Amino acid sequence: MACFLVPTAEAVVVTIVSKVLDHKDASKTQEVDASKISEKIPFARKLKWLNGMLWGGSALLAFEHVWHGEVTPWFPFLTAMGSEADAMEMFHEMATAGVMMAVLVTAVWGIMCVAADIIMKKAAKKELAGGKAS
Amino acid sequence: MTLLITVFAAIAATLAWYFKNNGKYCLGTLCLMYWGASIMWFVDAIFEYAEAGAEFFEPAGKDMLNDAFLGISVVALGLIIWLVVLIVKDPDGRLKSLLKSQKAV
């Protein structure tokens, strides 16, 4: 009914956090250990992956809702808002399916981040071992 | 059916990203978009299964056709969004040079 609104709301929050982090990184000039840079992917970059999944998924899901006539271009934009019973059902769906969608996308992103860090760490170790051997 | 088509699109986009990615053509954006949608539809499918039970796996022909049509439309919409992102970023500067040449004429 309107489950895509929950991941959309999370996407808005993540976008704001990402922009703030970008702004902070641009304004802050500090000495960073070079070995740390090569081993870890910056958090701001990882947030962009989450942003891509949330915005992309929400956009395609919103299209599905338009397809099924659940979203309309006129007020109140959601057909479920027409009656109180439908609205309650919609809120229930948002609280269950919508929240689960946001949680699962975030969990997958978390796994992606951990996997990326492990891959980067292994690559750095290999590089270091290769450098020592030669 | 929509979930299945989106998952196949996500796999195809990921393979293209893995073998052809040089960070230039925003293939990562396409992958993230399709995977994000696939996860969301997967959750939708879980809830539908919980509601309908085994019937979930025996959809009516008409519903399946409609879902397949929706899935293909979703893939097309994803490609359109990716194309817009690509043109706006213009990694090869083709649009820029084209506009410059138009200005010169």
In short:
By secondary structure, chain A is mainly alpha-helical.
Order of helical and strand elements of chain B: HHHH
Strand content of chain B: under 5%
- What's the SSE pattern of chain A? HHHH
Helix content estimate of chain B: over 70%
- What helical percentage do the residues of chain A reach? over 70%
**Quaternary status:** heterodimer
Give a description of the structure.
Chain A has 134 residues and is mainly α. Chain A has one domain (5-27, 36-133). Chain A is built from four helices and no strands. In chain A, α1 runs antiparallel to α3 (43-67), α1 (5-27) crosses α4 (84-133) and α3 runs antiparallel to α4. Chain A starts with a helix and ends with a helix. Chain B contains four helices and no strands. The termini of chain B are far apart. In chain B, 26% of the residues are buried. Chain B has one domain. Chain B is an all-alpha fold and 105 residues long. The A-B interface holds A 3-4, 7, 49, 52-61, 63-64, 67, 96-97, 100-101, 104-105, 108 and B 2, 6, 28-29, 32-44, 46-47, 70, 73-74, 77-78, 81.
